[in-house]
Amino acid sequence: MNAENIASLVFFCRLSMLFLHTILKICSVALALVTLFSVSGCKDEEESTQSSMEEVEVLEKSGYKLVNGGISEYRILLAENSLENELVAAQELQNFLYEATGATLPILYGDDVADNAPIISIGQTERADAASLSVDGLDLNRSGYLMKTVGNSLYIIADEQFKGLGCVYAVYDMLEDCIDDRYYHSDEIHFNQKQSVELYKYDDVV
User: Fold this and answer.
1) Contact predicate 17/183, CB 8 Å
2) Taking the model in full, what pTM does it have?
3) How many C-beta atoms lie closer than 10 Å to residue 175's C-beta?
4) 3-state SS assignment for residue 135
């Protein structure tokens, strides 16, 4: 995959993410209005509903940091036979974490990492196999993915029939959580500068 194709893929994925987030915002507003009218005159119930929604939005910390004080012990791990989109996902994750924190997470392949080393595994790696993680039996669409935190490591896997495209979407969702990475236009991307970045507890099938 040449640089032009990678740039086109990144643009397409981020544009799709922007569209999906816009739809989700519209749906959220519509749902909020319905909820507001349905509980009109019942203040306690409304406060309870609002509190529940806020609790859902709070991400649980794993106790580990992807970046701590501008330094990271993490590695991005790919399989030896990694798919094109898995490599794109790894490069996007590496680039944006560097831009936001100054820390560089090396991209490694295969078993070129200690068994207990903290990693972000992208694709069906040997570490993912060892953790008994796969997307076999899951009905994932082209942007779907499995993202799960296990101990000090994070695993991201997507359906190979879509060449691992879901891994790119998973990385963008993760970056939005970690550094508030948001894509508005091809030349307008926002993210927060941070010295430290949390690893959250994920257990998602999207």
Assistant:
1) yes
2) 0.73
3) 20
4) coil
Tokens of 24: 């989700």
Distance CA 172, CA 11 (A): 12
**How crowded is residue 28: how many other Cβ atoms within 10 Å of its Cβ?**
11
Residue type, 63: G
C-alpha neighbours within 13 Å on the C-beta side of residue 181:
23
165-179 helix and 3-38 helix, angle to the nearest 10 degrees: 60
Copy the structure tokens of residue 108: 């490694």
- Backbone CA torsion sign across 24, 26, 27, 29: positive
45/69 Cα distance (integer angstroms): 43
CA atoms of 199 and 178, how far apart (whole Å): 8
CA-nearest of 177, 172, 92, 79 to 130 is 79
Q: In terms of residues, how long is the chain?
A: 206
Residue 6 reports pLDDT greater than 80: no
**Short-list 101, 147, 84, 83, CA closest to 121:** 147
Alpha-carbon distance of 26 to 32, in angstroms, equals 10
Per-residue pLDDT of 134-185, as tens digits, reads 999 999 999 999 999 999 999 999 999 999 999 999 999 999 999 886 654 4
Q: Which two structure tokens, joined as six digits, stand for 100?
A: 């936001």
Instruction: Return the pLDDT at 39.
Output: 44
